[in-house]
Each structure stands twice: as structure tokens, then as C-alpha cells.
Amino acid sequence: MSEPTAPAKYDRRAFMAYFSSIGLGSTLLPGVLWGQLQQQQQGPEITKEMIASAEEISGVHFSDEERTQMVRNLQQMRNAIQQLHQVPLDMSVFPAIVFDPVPPGKTLAKKTKAVAVRAKVPVMSRPGSLDELAYAPVTQLSEMVRSRKVKPSELTEMYLARLKRYDPQLHFVINLTEERARKQAKDMDAEISRGKYRGPLHGIPWGAKDLLAVKGYPTTWGASLYKDQTFDYDATVVKRLDDAGAILVAKLTLGSLAQGNHWWAEYTRNPWIPEQLSPGSSGSSAGPASATAAGCVGFSIGSETNGSITSPARTCGVSGFRPTFGRVPRTGAMALSWTTDKLGPICRSAEDCALVFDAIQGPDGEDYSVKQYPFNWNAANKLSQLRIAYIKTSNGRNLFERRDSTGATVPNAEALNFLKVLESLGAKLVEIEEPTPNYGFLDSIILDAECGAAFEADTLSGKIKELESYSSWPNTFRAAQFVPAVDYVNANRARIRAMNQTWDLFEKYDVVLSPQENTSVTNITGTPSIVVPTGFAIPAPQQGRGGRGAVEVTLPPGRGTDTARGATPPTPPRPTPTIPLPTSMYIMGPIFQDEKNLLVAHAFQSVTDFHKKRPPQFA
Question: In a 3-state reduction of DSSP, which class is residue 322?
């Protein structure tokens, strides 16, 4: 019987996929064999002798008949994958496989929609200068608009002016949306003058992380490679905020392809320490956090795959809310990981986050991961109704201690004060150990496989080489082409274990607090989290350059920080700050019960004023 021959030009993806399909994707055999093929100038046929040679290095063994069958099946696999590569797939196409954060056998409690109950807002007269409203929360701005003390167009012009004034220092704007904003503002003025009021976001200017599509404007994903890219539609979140009467004033920065705070033109700065390139605003929702903290937008929308809302919010001293996975549609947003990407608000207060979240949550018929489940906001609920726990230690380290500016270990006064404030409000707190192990290995497999799929076309064509030289994404995307399909599937099976552990935790407690969130767990399980400012402290001395947490020991892990796995992008020198910078607390809750952690955050902010502090240079 004659032996089948290989085509003149072999497809490496098909090659690797075949070996994964027979359970050898994690062995050396495919890579060694492929390397031998690449040494040939004319794309030769694969022979059983070539496979046998690769076996010697890989430590596996097959019979002659098995080797012949491999060649034949590999040809068939190549043909199938070649056909797959002819199918046009862009970011607007979601996978048929949908992640559901509800573990198998578990059900969400039945819930009916209730009327929202907001906190009372003090009556405020129109200030002499509108700039005095720059730091007003949405709760207050909305009342100013509703009572006609200020026009949406006036707020729009005030925020546009501040964006232009402070962007040269903070580098948080990619593109202003002036023409769109002014038209919206004019329409909102007209509606309010006729007595039509759309709700708490009517006339409130906001900024979008520039991975959300906005018709008529570039959507750059923070990368020069895509800086002229446009879409002829608006993201679902943009459309919903339009419907709520909010006014989009700017598309704000993100690190290149949602990594850190370094985009193609600059580093986005932290308003509390704008003179230093690094540490900057953190990322990847760098612009939204910085612009919100500097009083340049009423609120913003960020995204998180692993820390990209909570990390910059923590760094810049604002309230950043990452909702339950499956509550906010990602339609029209850049994809990194279809089973872990989330969109959420970055605001000046927790109640602001609740109001914005209420406007953007719920199914859109396109992102099939999103469930229909009521969100019932009641700011009057008492903390005594909640079972609240706090994680004291992680990997043997006391999270309620930290190093001070001299390097000495001292109590984490701001975190301890957070607990005392909650107790004064009637909360009964329970100390617990870190409940789940670090699932970073699952995050690595799942995220790498999915981002590699999202950017496969540009990776295989070589276009991704044009990405910024400091980015480690091209290497991640290339390496992802070798992730065995069987291991990706099994990582998602192991994910069920983490989901069950988290579900069991929140069967016991309604809310879990920690000065440091284990994002490797919460992001793969879909758990909601809000980070809120708790005070200020001078960071500990620098402990070396490069990796995660080089300046602040409580930096959360993950891609939200300024570095990524693998090769670390070069960064400027990191002098240790000598001024107090914001501190924070993470408040986590059960999936689809987003009201609970938002309520704890709101209760804390109702009797403290840390969320009202203003960076001195931008006050």
C-alpha cells in the first residue's frame, strides 16, 4: 500500500491540532516533528521515518502502521482546518460554547423586580462656577439636571474643557467625541425643558474605554496597529447609555490590547502622582479610572478580564465595580476571553456604580452569556441583614498588616478602620481563611487559548508583529496556537471545582471582604467585586523592578497590573512615592446578587468621605 504524502505547504495549526486530537498535544513529539519539517526548503511530505525520528527525542513510540495512519489523518485534519480558516470571523462573532457561572446542579433563587430605592441627596444650589460640580457624584448631578439647576449641555462643556485641560498631564484621552456629545446634549436639554426626564443618567457626561465600538469614531483598542479602525455600529453598552440619556464625551485610554496603562502614544498617569510615569494609573482600564479620579467625566465604563477594573480603580482612588459575569452584554467590545471578559462602571461612589450598572445590565439577544435576572437596588437596606466575612490571611501573610515607608511591618490601619466602620453600622463580621487555592494556572490556559483564538488571523498573517515593541501580546498569541484543545476543555472542567467552592463560600456568607482580591479565582468563577477607597498611606519601598506588585505589596495579581505573564514589557524607573496614595478594600459577593457587595460599599461611603477626596493638582 502506498503511503500518503503531505501537501507542499503545511499548516502548523492543523499539524498541532491533529496531535492534540490523539492525546499527544502536551508531548514533545508535535513540536520536534514540526521543527524538522521547517528545516526543509520545499515543504516535503511527512514520512513514517520522520515521525520515528521525532519519537526518539519525544520519548514515545508507535508502530509503522500507526505512523502511516497519522500521516493520512493529519492530511484530513489539515484540509478541515484550511476550510475553517476560510470562514470570516471577527470580534462581533461569539463562540457557540457559552460560559455559565452557575455551577451544574445549582439554581439561582427566584427573584422579582422591585422599585429602586436611592439614598437621599442633599439639596444643592447652582454653584458660581460649574467646575465645582466636576467631582459631584452621579447621584447629585442627576438631581441638578432633574431640577433644572444645570443643563446637560453645560455639564458637557465643563467636562470637555477639563478633558482638554488635563489630558496633557494625565494622557487619558484617545479621542474626544465632541460633535456627538454636543448633539446629544442639545437633545437632552430640549427633553428636560419639555418635562421629559429619562432617569438618573439623563444629561450625565461619561467616558468609554476605547475597546467599545462607537459609530463614527475610531476604536483603537489602545494599539497603534488598530488606531484607524472603525466600526459602523455602537456597542450595546453605548446604545443603552444613549437610551438612558447619558452623554459620551470621550473614548479613554487602555494599555495596548487591554494590557497595563501603556498605550501607543503614552503612559496614562495616576492623578494623585501625575509627575511619575510609573507607577501610573494601572490598567487596563487606565483612562476611565484616571479621568474619573481627576473629575473629567461624570462616570466611565471599563472592562475586566483579570483585574482591569478593580486594579486601576484601587490605584486612582475611585469606586470600580466588576459585575457578575453574564450580566452586561459585551456586544461591540474587543474580545480577549469570551468566558471571562466583563464590562462595568468606574465611578466616584458605590451608588453611582449601582445606577450605571442598572442601565447597562440585562440580555441584548446577541451576547448569549447574559441572563435575565432582576437587579434590585435598595440603598436603605441594613448591614445587619447580611452575613459578612473577611479574609485575614493569604499564603500565610496577614492582609491586615503591611510594610510602611521604612519597610517595617505595621497594622493596615485603613483596612482595620473599614471593619470598624462596618461594625458601627450593625454588621457582624466573621474572620475566615482564604477559602480557595490560587487558580492562576486555569486562568493562564483559558485566557491564552481564547485570546489566541480572538487574534488568530492577525497572528498567523504576521500582522501582529506590528504591535508595540513593549507588548508581550504577540508572543502570547503565538504561544496560544500550541495550547492543546483537550487541555483547554479540561481546564474548563476543572473550573467547575472553583465555581463550586465559590458557590459553597457564598452559601455561608453574603459578602466577603479583603484588602487583596484573589482575581485568579474571582474572574474564572464570575464573582462580582467592587473596590472602594479607604484612606491614604505612603507605599512601601520598592522591592525590585518589573513584576507584579513591584511598588505596592497589595497589588492584585493578573493582567490588570502593568505587566503580563511571560516577557515583561520594559517600564520606566519606579521611584517609591513619598506622598500618601489611595488605599482600598475589595468587597466580593455571590454571583447575580450584585446588590449585596454594592450595599456594603455604599454603607461605608455613607459615613465616610474617602471617596470624595480630590487629587490636589486637579481639584
Answer: strand
